[in-house]
TrEMBL record:
Entry-linked InterPro entries: DExx_box_DNA_helicase_dom_sf, DNA_helicase_ATP-dep_UvrD, DNA_helicase_UvrD-like_C, DNA_helicase_UvrD/REP, P-loop_NTPase, UvrD-like_ATP-bd
Protein origin, superkingdom: Bacteria
Protein name as annotated: DNA helicase II
Lineage of source species: Bacteria, Pseudomonadati, Pseudomonadota, Gammaproteobacteria, Alteromonadales
Sorted UniProt keywords: ATP-binding, DNA damage, DNA repair, DNA replication, DNA-binding, Helicase, Hydrolase, Isomerase, Nucleotide-binding
Catalysed reaction, written as an equation: Couples ATP hydrolysis with the unwinding of duplex DNA by translocating in the 3'-5' direction; ATP + H2O = ADP + phosphate + H(+)
Length: 721
């Protein structure tokens, strides 16, 4: 059989890996060097040339989407269905195993998976029942302890807490938590992996069966495996399977979740026969993007060391845009995408990457404003997020007490002792009497129908809404939002939950205040009042829904979700100290390197064009910050970068209007675009832009020695030259 087509489109090193004799292998290579492609072709090779059955193959990828794509690509190459091949994420595969062998795993058939929010809620209940103070034992910390132990393969019985009271308490909590999970048939994420591992250890006949079956194990993005994931593979592989792992130590970005780069070294020890193949040619990015990324990551110590080169031309330089604020940044990005489209490009070829979820809101707004379809990959749109809907629920009730949907949503969020039974009474009475839930509550209280405790709880809720309303009556919209988030208990509730998700939720709530602050009242809605106009604005934004899979749409995602993907045009937004690297990473020194790897991941997603943007001032999480550009920008040598100067024409019409107005004032000041000026501290420079009027008029100057700065004209005492 002619199998050359399996090796077409591969370089020598890639061929060596794809066509290697059956054995274990490590493919260690930088971004865009074809690791994933090699893995896919290797599977096809095993099927086609080595006549291996799909039944004998197990492949692990990082996301379900990647798994689906890989299967599709293999099927395209081999031309037939590969249904019997196991391909998925670690969690997906382990879950499949538990579903098939639930009895052997000691689980009820109908076991349910808990996400990290569920997990922390359960822990809170347990803490309460034990009379333990959440402040002393934050649920986040307890969950972190439990998950950490599970990731190391440890059950309570394996742990010796020693003489330390805190450690002993945590261990006790682990035990009690696990008992309640087992009773309720609940399984958390870490448990899925741990049980799957224990299945191997405790049921030798099952292990033997799967060892016999999976002769070929292939793992993509290996640098982000944690201890239990590695152990699972290690045991399954035994002494006979051929394990091919591909990875890049420079792209390890989940250390905060327990991923261990050391697994790469461990693999080489555990599989002494494994050959290491390095790929060094990059096929994804232009020369400039690649060289800049190489230089950036060179700032990290202790790398396994790889150099990437490309045959591709240098291409365009990386464009760096210093925005005036976050809205200007968003408008700039949308403007560039629009240009791309005008030149015949597709929206789906453009990706906007950001460090934290809350950053998406301003970008979404600018996209919606322009009528540009977009899709948030691996997440929800801002106004569809749970915590935002909670906060909007309160705002809606303040505005209209008879809004039953809002009532249902927040009546017991945060928990205030209004149980399902009370709600059922409310609902059925409301139905019978044709009243709203609010009216029904009032009536039932009046008629003293509810039990003492329930009545108190319901009354407390009604009072809260009335109080919120009167407290915020005279306030501007953003302070209403802020007040409600604080005093409804929502913020405290999410703060207490802690954890990754809860942290993002608090940030989103704070971001809602920013959204309210920058909300511009459409003229035609003036009669309906600011709060109502804002509520309908939010409902409409949420209602538009994600662009469906077939619509050409801009891709928005966090840098973490972008791993393994590639796009012709990439924007990295909000590249500022405190955002990226994040505040947390700056506070904990050892996380800076991981942030730098994340930056490397982001940059190397770009094929043709990379934009990096930052803002001089930014309202985010409800505050205004004046941040410095990220150190990562400075780490990119200037020869690969072109700074985009703000010109009046660059900005969208919104700015242009203000600009026309500002013209006079600006002229009054005697400054003009292109004119030379001197500043007492920054020395000489050239005026590049201005905005605002009167005492707020600001001017941007490109200083010869200090770079570009925005200055308030009335303070800056600029001297025209
Ligand atoms: P990452 O580290 O980001 O996951 P990767 O090493 O997995 O990257 P791939 O995604 O497999 O890299 O490949 C990057 C791009 O280069 C893809 O578009 C792929 O199709 C292309 N490519 C890989 N090898 C070759 C080759 N030999 N000739 C042409 N194109 C190639
Ligand atoms: Mg890849």
């Amino acid at each position: 059989m002619d199998v050359s087509f399996l090796l077409d489109g591969l370089n020598d090193k890639q061929r060596e890996a794809v066509a290697a004799p059956q054995s274990s292998m490590l493919v260690l290579a930088g971004a865009g060097s074809g690791k994933t492609r090699v893995l896919t072709h290797r599977i096809a090779w095993l099927l086609q040339v080595e006549n291996q059955s799909p039944y004998s193959i197990l492949a692990v990828t990082f996301t379900n989407k990647a798994a689906a794509e890989m299967r599709e690509r293999v099927e395209k190459i081999v031309g037939h269905n590969t249904g019997r091949m196991w391909i998925g994420t670690f969690h997906g595969l382990a879950h499949r195993l538990l579903r098939t062998h639930w009895q052997d795993a000691g689980l009820p058939q109908s076991f349910q998976i808990m996400d990290s929010d569920d997990q922390q809620r359960l822990l809170k209940r347990i803490l309460k029942s034990m009379n333990l103070d959440e402040k002393q034992y934050p649920p986040r910390l307890v969950a972190g302890y439990i998950n950490g132990k599970k990731d190391q393969g440890l059950r309570p019985a394996h742990i010796d807490a020693g003489p330390f009271p805190m450690e002993q308490k945590l261990l006790e909590l682990y035990r009690i938590y696990q008992d309640s999970c087992d009773r309720a048939g609940l399984v958390d994420f870490a448990e899925i992996l741990l049980r799957a591992h224990e299945l191997w250890l405790n049921k030798p006949h099952l292990l033997a069966h799967y060892q016999d079956r999976f002769r070929h194990i292939l793992v993509d993005e290996f640098q982000d495996t944690n201890a239990i994931q590695y152990a699972w593979i290690r045991v399954l592989a035994g002494n006979t399977a051929n394990v091919m792992i591909v990875g890049d130590d420079d792209q390890s970005i989940y250390g905060w979740r327990g991923a261990q780069i050391e697994n790469l070294h461990r693999f080489l020890q555990d599989f002494p026969g494994a050959k290491t193949i390095r790929l060094e040619q990059n096929y994804r990015s232009t020369g400039n993007i690649l060289k800049a990324s190489n230089e950036l990551i060179a700032n990290n110590p202790d790398r396994m060391g790889k150099e990437l080169w490309t045959e591709d031309k240098d291409g365009e330089p990386i464009s760096l845009y210093c925005a005036f604020n976050e809205m200007d940044e968003a408008r700039f990005i949308v403007g560039r995408i629009s240009d791309w489209q005008d030149k015949g490009g597709m929206l789906g070829e453009c990706a906007i990457l950001y460090r934290s979820n809350a950053q998406s809101r301003v970008l979404e707004e600018a996209l919606l404003h322009k009528g540009m379809p977009y899709r948030i990959y691996g997440g929800l749109r801002f106004f569809e997020r749970q915590e935002i809907k909670d906060a909007m629920g309160y705002l809606r009730l303040i505005s209209n007490r008879d809004d039953d949907a809002a009532f249902e949503r927040v009546v017991n969020t945060p928990a205030r002792g209004i149980g399902e039974r009370t709600l059922d009474i409310l609902r059925s009475t409301a139905r019978k009497e044709q009243l709203t839930l609010w009216q029904t509550s009032l009536r039932l209280l009046e008629e003293k129908v509810l039990s003492g405790r329930a009545a108190n709880a319901v009354k407390g809720f009604l009072d809260l809404i009335v109080q919120l309303r009167s407290d915020t009556d005279e306030l501007p919209l953003y302070r209403v939002a802020d007040h409600v988030i604080q005093h409804s208990g929502l913020k405290a509730m999410y703060e207490a939950e802690k954890g990754e998700n809860a942290q993002a939720r608090v940030e989103n709530l704070e971001e809602l205040v920013t959204a309210a602050r920058s909300f511009e009242m459409p003229e035609e809605l003036e009669d309906m009042g600011e709060l109502n106009a804002f509520l309908s604005h939010a409902a409409l934004e949420a209602g538009e829904g994600q662009a469906d899979a077939h619509t050409d749409a801009v891709q928005l995602m966090t840098l973490h979700s972008a791993k393994g993907l590639e796009f012709p045009m990439v924007f990295m937004a909000g590249v500022e100290e405190g955002i990226f690297p994040s505040k947390l990473a700056l506070e904990e020194g050892d996380r800076l390197e991981e942030e730098r790897r994340l930056c490397y991941v982001g940059m190397t997603r770009a094929m043709q064009k990379l934009y990096i943007t930052y803002a001089e001032s930014r309202r985010i999480y409800g505050r205004e910050d004046y941040a410095r550009p990220s150190r990562f920008i400075r780490e990119i040598p200037p020869e690969y970068v072109e700074e985009i100067r703000l010109k009046a024409q660059v900005s969208a019409p919104l700015v242009a209007n203000r600009f026309a107005h500002a013209q006079q004032t600006f002229n009054d000041s005697g400054l003009k675009i292109g004119g030379r000026v001197r500043h007492f501290k920054f020395g000489e420079g050239t005026v590049t832009n201005y905005e605002g009027s009167g005492p707020q008029a600001r001017v941007q100057v490109q200083f010869d020695d200090f770079g570009s700065k925005w200055l308030v004209v009335s303070y800056a005492k600029l001297e025209s030259l």
